[in-house]
Design goal:
GO biological process, one term: DNA integration
CATH architecture of the largest domain: 3-Layer(aba) Sandwich
CATH class of the largest domain: Alpha Beta
Shape: elongated
Keywords: DNA integration, DNA recombination, DNA-binding
Strand content: 5-15%
Helix content: 40-55%
Strand order of the largest sheet: 2-1-3-4
Active site: 17 (o-(5'-phospho-dna)-serine intermediate)
Protein name: Resolvase, N-terminal domain protein
GO molecular function: DNA binding; DNA strand exchange activity
């Protein structure tokens, strides 16, 4: 019985963080390659959350001979080990091909029957995966150093502090004389009781 020929599909995958909502650059690159918009899977993730529902869905429908197109190698994972593992799953277990648009050497369609080419592609993959992880770690380190330096300069992070109204000083004196409770004073200022007491401590 002859094996039924199944036409291969070309899929695209894009990933952005919720802080950087601009996915258009990746989508345009995938469409320019020839990926149909309906076959592009997109995940938007926060910095701490790496649950990728669209990527999981994509790997379930990928079949042998299909092509997965990504703009850059770090779209496959957050770190060196994760990138290599996803590359292995797609190319070795599923036996689909991967095309990395910003690195032409990482195109497994061209390396199937070329041992030297396969070796070079694997070597480039490992180097780029390591570089991608190192760059992310350096960016995070620079951000932390920038925050520390800003705090030393007195820059306040988070929500702006509520300004202390003039009425607070009058109510503080009444509270100190026992003429009003901290709860009632806070209610008149329309703030939390803890905030009133914190303001009192800060005025000492």
């Amino acid at each position: 019985m002859e094996e039924k020929f199944m036409e291969s599909n070309i899929y695209g995958y894009a990933r952005v963080s919720t802080r950087d909502q601009n996915e258009s650059r990746q989508l345009l690159a995938l469409e320019a390659f020839g990926v149909e918009s309906k076959k592009i899977y997109l995940d938007k993730l926060s910095g701490k959350n790496f649950d990728r529902p669209s990527y999981r869905k994509l790997t379930k429908i990928l079949r042998r001979g299909d092509v997965l197109v990504i703009q850059s190698i770090d779209r496959l994972g957050r770190n060196y080990g994760e990138i290599l593992e996803q590359w292995r799953i797609v190319t070795k277990e599923i036996k689909a091909d991967i095309v990395v648009l910003d690195m032409p050497l990482l195109d497994t369609r061209k390396k199937q029957d070329d041992l030297t080419g396969t070796f070079i592609a694997d070597l480039v993959l490992q180097i780029l995966s390591y570089v991608a992880q190192t760059e992310r770690e350096n960016i995070k380190k620079r951000q932390q150093e920038g925050i520390r330096a800003a705090k030393l300069r007195g820059v306040h992070f988070g929500r702006p502090r509520k300004p202390i109204p003039e009425k607070f000083y009058e109510l503080k004196e009444k509270w100190k004389r026992g003429e009003i409770s901290s709860r009632k004073a806070a209610a008149q200022l329309q703030i939390a009781q803890d905030t009133f007491l914190r303001w009192v401590r800060g005025q000492k």
